[in-house]
Design a protein that fits this description.
The chain has about 140 residues and is an alpha+beta fold. The chain has six helices and four strands.
Length: about 140
């Protein structure tokens, strides 16, 4: 349903704390959530830069992840580490990735308020040029 690539810049000296938060998030996400296809963190080439690759089975799974207790419970620690965040919606190339295509996905109107708030804060929009390349 949705794949995202996050480029995250960390405040100098906060790298170890950020990695601690992300290790917790990784463990909780993979041990308690269903439908998570990819959720992993990477150190970048530039000092203080990290990447996160996220992919979920469907929109509901993504929004549940965003509003989960473990995600929201770490938000203060997470934001104290973050100097900059660039969330990019990405689309796997069919026949060159095992992940499903990224589709436009709004949160259902009957979703819990926390999920609706996440959808407002982090809207998902795909690039129009992708559609012509999909098989």
């Amino acid at each position: 349903m949705s794949s995202l690539l996050a480029k995250i810049q960390i405040h100098p000296g906060k790298e170890a704390e950020f990695e601690d938060v992300m290790a917790y998030m990784y463990e909780r996400t993979h041990s308690t959530e269903e439908g998570v296809l990819r959720y992993e963190y990477w150190r970048g080439r530039e000092r203080g830069f990290y990447y996160c690759l996220l992919s979920f089975r469907d929109a509901a799974t993504f929004w549940r992840h965003q509003a989960s207790d473990h995600h929201e419970g770490q938000m203060q620690r997470f934001t104290e580490c973050i100097a900059g965040l660039d969330l990019e919606i990405i689309d796997p190339v069919q026949h060159a990735s095992p992940l499903p295509p990224t589709l436009d996905a709004s949160v259902p109107q009957d979703a819990p308020p926390a999920e609706q708030e996440q959808a407002r804060r982090f809207p998902i929009a795909t690039a129009d040029w992708w559609r012509a390349l999909r098989n």
